[in-house]
């Protein structure tokens, strides 16, 4: 039921504080402020390599997770889209964890990759939203997201719940490997538990975003830029926009722009910059200057500090709460989802059932 919402997608965007809290609740222990994963019968501290395979939005969640596994657990991570994975003859050595991420648990390419990895002796972990799905049944380590049924074809709440589970998994691996002290674990858990409230503050900007959607709706092309874990968010923002508003959009790592995409920039191309304040912010500002010098119209998504430093001269700004870098990818998912949603509403497209797309892609 859509309740008071116009679309399932809108409802699902607004459910995120609740479902992320629900999901975190089953991976974090509030009283002891520690990570608590389900029981499984392999030694996670002996994992030598993590291979992440997924499609679409779930793949972008995997890209964010790569930063966390490497940063916290110091484990090398390979990541691939499922449709490419098997065909490149990946090297799958003993002691590897193959991690599959899927809302539906039925995506044909991801499932085929899972079976391939199983055959090659990898330990199979699955982050999945449908607990009765095929992938859930075939996992050694089942890590459910508790997003509830996702009806909108554009994935929203499944994504932020996937991020919540993946952050907990990376932290758990770090703890088991002796790389995360008790104090560090306490910090990570505390920041993760702050996520639902921060998602709520991000949602408070819904009306501002709705009001600026008409600036983006006429565009033929839109670029999204981000650095570090916000780079996958730029890709996700571009995917959301093209899926439901049919505007051509691309996501780039901010620093890659001058290696080609900058040639596209003129005053008809809005550039959405995802840049929370922090150590990489200066670099994002200089990328913005490059865009501006070519007449590009910038929409800056940042926190109050970032907007104060760089918000002048933007076509529009969207203010996010100031959050710990760990949860920034969850929080910055909200404005990119809302922007795509409101632009699609301005354009009058079928938000929940965009043309040519299926909720679950069960053919390879
Ligand atoms: O069910 P899955 O997570 O395996 O689906 C993967 C993709 O098909 C899915 O994320 C798709 O890209 C969405 N339409 C994105 O909004």
TrEMBL record:
Q: What class of enzyme is it?
A: transferase
Q: Which reaction does it catalyse?
A: D-fructose 6-phosphate + L-glutamine = D-glucosamine 6-phosphate + L-glutamate
The active site consists of 359
Q: Does the keyword Repeat apply?
A: yes
Q: Does the keyword Zinc apply?
A: no
According to the UniProt entry, its GO molecular function terms are:
glutamine-fructose-6-phosphate transaminase (isomerizing) activity
Q: Which domain of life is it from?
A: Bacteria
Q: Indicate where this protein resides in the cell.
A: Cytoplasm
Keywords assigned by UniProt, alphabetized: Aminotransferase, Cytoplasm, Glutamine amidotransferase, Repeat, Transferase
Q: EC number(s) of the enzyme?
A: 2.6.1.16
- Give every SIS domain span: 40-179, 212-354
| Function (record text) | Catalyzes the first step in hexosamine metabolism, converting fructose-6P into glucosamine-6P using glutamine as a nitrogen source.
Q: Whom does it interact with, and what assembly results?
A: Homodimer.
Name the record gives this protein = Glutamine--fructose-6-phosphate aminotransferase [isomerizing]
Q: What is the lineage of its organism?
A: Bacteria, Pseudomonadati, Pseudomonadota, Alphaproteobacteria, Sphingomonadales
């Amino acid at each position: 039921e859509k309740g008071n919402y116009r679309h399932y997608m809108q409802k699902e965007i607004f459910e995120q504080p609740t479902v992320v809290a629900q999901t975190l609740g089953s991976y974090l222990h509030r009283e002891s402020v520690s990570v608590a994963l389900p029981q499984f019968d392999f030694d996670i501290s002996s994992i030598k390599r993590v291979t992440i395979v997924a499609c679409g939005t779930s793949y972008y969640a995997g890209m964010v997770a790569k930063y966390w596994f490497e940063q916290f657990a110091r484990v090398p991570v390979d990541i691939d889209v499922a449709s490419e994975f098997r065909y490149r003859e990946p090297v799958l050595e003993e002691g590897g964890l193959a991690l599959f991420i899927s809302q539906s648990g039925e995506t044909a390419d991801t499932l085929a990759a899972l079976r391939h990895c199983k055959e090659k002796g990898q330990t199979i972990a699955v982050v999945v939203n449908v607990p009765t799905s095929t992938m859930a049944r075939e996992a050694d380590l089942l890590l459910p997201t508790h997003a509830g049924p996702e009806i909108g074809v554009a994935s929203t709440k499944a994504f932020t719940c996937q991020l919540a589970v993946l952050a907990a998994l990376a932290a758990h691996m770090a703890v088991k490997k002796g790389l995360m002290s008790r104090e560090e674990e306490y910090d990570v858990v505390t920041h993760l538990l702050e996520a639902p409230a921060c998602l709520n503050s991000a949602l408070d900007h819904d009306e501002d975003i709705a009001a600026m959607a008409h600036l983006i709706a006429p565009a033929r092309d839109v670029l999204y830029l981000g650095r570090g874990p916000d780079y996958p968010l730029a890709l996700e923002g571009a995917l959301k926009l093209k899926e439901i508003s049919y505007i051509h959009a691309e996501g780039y790592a901010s620093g890659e722009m001058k290696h080609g995409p900058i040639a596209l920039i003129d005053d008809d191309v809005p550039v959405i910059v995802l840049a929370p304040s922090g150590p990489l912010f200066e670099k994002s500002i200089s990328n913005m200057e490059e865009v501006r010098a070519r007449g590009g119209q910038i929409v800056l998504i940042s926190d109050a500090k970032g907007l104060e430093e760089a918000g002048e001269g933007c076509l529009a700004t969207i203010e996010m709460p100031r959050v710990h870098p760990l949860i920034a990818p969850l929080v910055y998912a909200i404005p990119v989802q809302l922007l795509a949603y409101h632009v699609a509403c301005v354009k009058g497209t079928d938000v929940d059932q965009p043309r040519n797309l299926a909720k679950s892609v069960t053919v390879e």
